[in-house]
Amino acid sequence: MPGCQDCLLTGSPWLHLRICLECGHVGCCDDSPNRHATAHNHASGHPIIRSLEPGEEWSWCYPDEVAMVIPGVRGHTRIPPSPMLV
Fold first, then answer.
1. Would you say 36 and 15 are in contact if contact means Cβ atoms under 8 Å apart?
2. How far apart, in whole angstroms, are the C-alpha atoms of residue 49 and residue 22?
């Protein structure tokens, strides 16, 4: 995914990207204007996201409001730069 799925549909900018570990939806972080990752959690109930930012390996659990590193979740990301930072 070349960016936040919902922002790409509306032409909105995003700051950082998060991926839902249940369905793979890519949304923007809470510092982005539209907060699509959190909106996806509220709409779907999917509990855990992971940062897609290069060098970041943390995940976030919405119900428990806790950040964590999940050893079995690995990989490198190749995402475009944020339109808000360009």
1. no
2. 8
With tokens 């939806």, the residue in question is: 25
Q: For 29-75, what is each residue's pLDDT tens digit?
A: 999 999 999 999 999 999 999 999 888 899 999 999 999 999 888 76
Report the largest interatomic distance among the alpha carbons of the chain, rounded to a whole angstrom. Answer: 35
Beta bridge partners of 18: 27, 51
H-type helices in the chain, by residue range?
A: 5-10, 36-44
| Residue-by-residue DSSP string for 16-78 | -EEEETTT--EEE-TTSSS-HHHHHHHHH---EEEE-STT---EEETTTTEEE--TT------
CB 40 within 8 A of CB 25: yes
Other beta carbons within 10 angstroms of residue 42's beta carbon come to: 10
pLDDT for residue 72 = 82
